[in-house]
Model the fold of this input.
Amino acid sequence: MMQGIQTEILLVMLLLILLIGLVAVVLIDPYIRREHRNIMLLIVLVVFGLLIKDVISHELDMLGTMPYRRTLLAIFGYILRPVLIVLYLYIVKPDGKYKAAWFLVGLNASVYLTATFSGICFSIDENNVFHRGPFGYTAHIIGGILLVYTVQLTIVRYGEKRNRENMLPVVIEVLIMIAVIIDSVVDYRNYPVTFLTVVVAGANVFYYIWLHLQFVREHENALMAEQRIQILMAQIKPHFIYNSLTAIRSYLDEPDKAEDVLNHFAGFLRGSIDILEETGCIRADREFETVESYLYLERERFGEKLTVEKDIQDTDFFLPAFTVQTLVENAIGHGIRKSESGRGRVLIRSFQTELEHIIEVADDGVGFLIEKEQEKGQNMDRSHIGLSNLKQRLSLMCDGTLEIESAPGKGTLTRVRIPMDSRKTGAQGRSDVLWKL
Done:
């Protein structure tokens, strides 16, 4: 008997420590949103109320006295449970309007308040025995409706993002449903707290973890947005603009040719600036259109020194903006231009396997030793920093990968792999392109 009491006290103490610790972390966390912080504190307060209610009700049940006080405590518990679920709605969508949900909470409270003078919900007789009335499952039904709505809202709001952590609220809500069912069929008079109270206390911790995961995701998106701007500024370089305008000026005595060059220059600028409006990946055909304008201008600049070959078989997929542009610019600027003759060829191709979309850009320029560039670390030159940034964007935005093959005097091959199902795969690309140039 004494050991059972000690176990009960230990369980209550652990739950109290959990709630107090969560409050402390929420209050000092500088990254959690204010609206989420307020909701989390309200949720902890409600769970604390349920915990105290369970402990006092258990003691009164053990004493076998004061049925009216047990009735008041039971009303308090039945009213709070749907309130807790509505607060979870605000965690999933803080700016939501939940008038219907609060109406159900009010209806539930009105029904259970009748227990003070009627037995239609429940009653506790003079022998301290609980009797459920015809409306005794009102809180369960309303709570179930609210939980189903919470699951639906979570899936609709976050399911399209396909982030695994967004299934955490759904798992929590399913566990709450299971706890409610267990409390309905199991005699828990030998326990100081209900299964539901234990589950929601733990659920608060997981909701807090989920909120932090959302912050990490938003932080990643902000970094990618900033990186898009940096990439755009890097692409539209002053010397490139100057060289393009110089090429246009050289054709002033050939109006048709000047107009053609000007149209490609405008197309490149328009395609580049449009990237600022994008928040995610873009269609591959848009990327190739911008690259085509860039290549036209580069061919006008280098003339016969630059040969471009294209084999574009696959454009029906999405990829981070400036993926191909970065690879092509790297091939021309840091592969061919740095060769002794300043001449060379660039091959661009895209194709599809059973598992992946693959883009390859190869040049027969100076090449480099990959091992030496890796040893440089942060001291590597701008071209390879650009490839490193591209590799990160591919991984974050579309679960893609970037492979580099290079050899001094032979050239460089860069290969992008983008899985069709957003999962990394191991399909083999064709690495013979580089050596055939």
